[in-house]
Amino acid sequence: MPVVNSQALIDDRVAAIARYHQDIGVDRAQLDISGGIDSAVMAGLLVSALGPERVTLCHTIIHTDPRQTRQARDLAAAIGCRLAVGDFTPVYKSVVKELVRSLKDAGYDRAQIANHMKNNPTVEGSIRSTLRAPLGRGYNRLTGGGVRHGTGNECEDRFLRFYQKGGDGEVDTNPMEMLSKTEVYQLAFTLGARMDAQDAFRPIIAAVPTPDLWGVGNSHNDEDELQQWTGAPFTYGRMDPDTGSVLRVGTIEMVSRFVDANMDYGSLFDDALTEAGICNLVGLARQERDWRFPGLDLEQIETLLHAARNAEKMTRHKLNPGIPALGTRAQLVDAGILTNDLVGL
């Protein structure tokens, strides 16, 4: 499995977080938790590293699916940490109303704005995400101030950059940046056992990942949005919530591991890579299909590689290399904690 030693990975991330706080002289942390897998794992790591009394967890409701709120509450209770739950739906409605009013007064067509919002749900989703960031900062300041930790993982952050630049991307660290979604699931399962919180982690592991930003609950999920946006069959890994067995690794992870293993052919995300170079990569992928891209046909693989390159270019403006990840994937692989080998999965 991608995580060779889940206990050691928890120890490494907890130690890295604790060391970072000690090095900068800040003993408090703040985290937005959605009720989803990434924030659940980060909450467990922060409580383990700093203690629950030094962690401010907050859950902001803006047309949020009640199931997400329930999962966030259950998770916080299970790991022994207080959770601030604020319903900002009325604030959100007021903000959108004033945005539309001011645009109309400036000469924009109100009907066109309404049509744009109706036909493109990412518009309001983006506003919801960006509104949550200052609210999180507010919770942080009101409880003494601290490091605002992020919940990004490799599958979302590396080349797709599937986050809102001024929303969930507006953070001080990303300690899971080097971990794939599959590895985050493995971490969740082990954290649940270590913290005696299996009943809280289990439904989160079982749930289909969703940013819950469109006001339609789980009918809007990450994979559907990614595939609509990129036109490629990008998927996450999945895990059995009862046994901890990896059911599949995602195609996003497959692309990352393939690129990492074949740097001699040039980085897929390097502007200097020519079309001929991409063809070489596709040819190599054809040869390595059975162990690099199990279950995919050649057309799907070629689509994924081209889409990954295009997505990286389209989202490069979001890149913020100044956000510390508190370590690298290579270090974890060298330590025998992770593996880049997906054979057998």
Order of helices and strands: HEHEHEHHHEHHHHEEHHHHH
Counting helices, strands and paired strands, the structural category is: alpha/beta
Q: Provide the gyration radius in Å.
A: 20 Å
Strand content: 5-15%
Count all strands and give the number: 6
Helix fraction, binned, reads 40-55%
User: What is the 3D form?
Assistant: globular
- Overall average residue pLDDT: 93
Give the strand order of the largest sheet, numbering strands 1, 2, ... along the chain.
3-2-1-4
| Poorly predicted parts | none
Compute the number of helices. 15
Largest sheet report: 4 strands, parallel
Distance between the first and last residues' Cα? 7 Å
Describe the structure using short key phrases.
single chain; 345 residues; alpha/beta; 4-stranded parallel sheet; 15 helices; 7% strand
Briefly, what is this?
By secondary structure, the protein is of the alpha/beta class. It has helices spanning 6-24, 37-50, 66-78, 89-105, 110-119, 122-142, 154-157, 181-194, 198-206, 222-230, 251-261, 275-287, 289-292, 298-314, 329-334; strands at residues 29-32, 55-61, 83-87, 147-148, 238-239, 246-248.
List the helices and strands and how they pair.
Layout: H1 6-24, E1 29-32, H2 37-50, E2 55-61, H3 66-78, E3 83-87, H4 89-105, H5 110-119, H6 122-142, E4 147-148, H7 154-157, H8 181-194, H9 198-206, H10 222-230, E5 238-239, E6 246-248, H11 251-261, H12 275-287, H13 289-292, H14 298-314, H15 329-334
Parallel strand pairs: 1-2, 1-4, 2-3
Antiparallel strand pairs: 5-6
Helix pairs in contact: 1-2, 1-8, 2-8, 3-9, 8-9, 12-14
